[in-house]
Amino acid sequence: MIEQFIELLPELNKSFLETLIMVGIGLLVALIVGLPLGILLFVTDRDLFLENRWLKSILGVVVNLVRSVPFIILLVFLLPFTNFLLGTTTGPVSASVSLSVAAIPFYARIVESAARDIDRGVIEAAIACGASPWLIIKDIIFPEIKPGLISGLTITAISLIGYSAMAGAIGGGGIGDLAIRYGYYRYDDFVMFTTVILLVVMVQVIQYAGDFISKSVKKS
């Protein structure tokens, strides 16, 4: 068993790195696009300072539409777009396109939900004092939802790890690809067991780190 593990180690390291690349890109895009989208969904809501019923409805429909599509279908559906964008549909960077598209609305809803927990009286007081929308977002909304943003990133990262395993089914690389090529196709239980253990460890580490950072931010 030890010899088998040593033999598998190079492939395991490569797959682990590919999974990190996929999840990392997906998280970065979720933060860059999903965070402002979630804030926009909140501030354009009814009785808020940027209330816009049409914009809120359109954004809500688009977000819900993407979230309602099972990831494996979204993965296949976006293959032509991925090929147009990168010139290939295989590899971790290509898989990260679908992961990013899935992560954006997922994280946006988490951000919106976190913002809804803010006491609206604080926002109303800031408006009464003449604060600009940007000032309210920067100095009131962001500081209040920081722990929720960290927790949301943790949840998103864990979901992306699961999605990345599916991406391996169509040549995305990563741990899922390793499990399918070496474990499923070759009927190798050791490989399947090893990849499952690795995924579990990754999830536990991310969850622990996310909880720790979220609590630290909350105390500060």
UniProtKB/TrEMBL annotation:
Q: Where in the cell is it found?
A: Cell membrane
Q: Which PROSITE patterns match?
A: ABC_TM1 (PS50928)
Q: Where are the transmembrane segments?
A: 20-43, 55-78, 84-108, 148-170, 190-210
Gene Ontology biological process terms from the UniProt entry: D-methionine transmembrane transport
Q: Which residues form the ABC transmembrane type-1 domain?
A: 16-209
Which Pfam families does this chain map to?
BPD_transp_1 (PF00528)
Q: Which UniProt keywords apply?
A: Cell membrane, Membrane, Transmembrane, Transmembrane helix, Transport
The keyword Plastid is annotated on this UniProt entry: no
Q: What membrane topology does the UniProt entry give?
A: Multi-pass membrane protein
Recorded GO cellular component terms are:
plasma membrane
For this chain, the family text in UniProt reads: Belongs to the binding-protein-dependent transport system permease family. CysTW subfamily.
Write down what this protein is called.
ABC-type transport system permease protein (Probable substrate methionine)
The record lists the organism as: Halobacillus halophilus (strain ATCC 35676 / DSM 2266 / JCM 20832 / KCTC 3685 / LMG 17431 / NBRC 102448 / NCIMB 2269) (Sporosarcina halophila)
What would be the name of the gene that encodes this protein? Answer: metP2
